[in-house]
Amino acid sequence: MTDSSPRAGAEPATPAESAEAERRRSARRAERYGGQGRTAPGRRRALAVGLGLLVAVAGVGVGYLGYQKYGPKDVQAEQLGYVVVDDSTLDLRIKVTRDDPSQPVVCFVRAMGRDTAEVGRREVLVLPSASGTVEVATVIRSSARPASGSVYGCSTEVPGYLRAG
User: Fold this and answer.
1) Are 87 and 145 in contact (CB under 8 A)?
2) What digits encode the pLDDT tens for the residues 24-59?
3) Angstrom distance (rounded) from CA 12 to CA 61
4) Mean pLDDT of 97-124
5) Helix (H, G, I), strand (E, B) or coil at 139
6) CA distance 99 to 131
7) Which helix (H) or strand (E) segment is 134 a member of?
8) How far is residue 134 from each of residues 26, 73, 94, 126, measured CA to CA in Å?
9) What is the DSSP string of 31-55?
10) What is the pTM of this model?
């Protein structure tokens, strides 16, 4: 007895049967793996390139912002030391380094109490000089006994009331 119907695993006899078998296999794969929504290789590549460019641009932006915030400054100050003179006075020494020593700068210094609360503050004008780095000593008056002193920051934007002139 011979069986003329196609058996499982056997090759179909005619091209029409072959095309029909391929269509069924394709339909089963689509059901199983979700054949809808698949992107073409060219479109996938364009999507990958676009996402890569987006990540690169975001990285450059973050790098630029980080450099602006944490990169080298025009003016840098460092605390050298302090002495508590009495219950309302602190002597503070700072070192100021600037890119352009011909420009005046203002530094904000403060005295802090034992609980690290600010008890005194002062703006210090650093006049132009021949040297890029200068040491400045100043006295800070405080509203309570100071326990320490620090440099809050410096700026090249000197207010008009501090200008020597």
Assistant:
1) yes
2) 888 887 777 765 555 567 888 889 999 999 999 999
3) 60
4) 92
5) strand
6) 10
7) strand 133-141
8) 80, 16, 8, 8
9) HHHT-TTPPPHHHHHHHHHHHHHHH
10) 0.57
Amino acid at 53: L
Helix (H) or strand (E) holding 153: strand 148-155
**Alpha-carbon span 70 to 90, nearest angstrom:** 30
Residue with the bigger pLDDT between 122 and 162: it is 122
Whole-number average pLDDT of the chain: 84
Q: Let me know: does 150 contact 112? Beta carbons within 8 Å.
A: yes
How crowded is residue 15: how many other Cβ atoms within 10 Å of its Cβ?
8
DSSP for 74-109 reads SEEEEEEEEEEEETTEEEEEEEEEES-TTS-EEEEE
Q: Which residues of 23-48 are buried (b: 16+ CB within 10 A; e: fewer)?
A: eeeeeeeeeeeeeeeeeeeeeeeeee
CA 71 – CA 113 distance, rounded (Å):
31
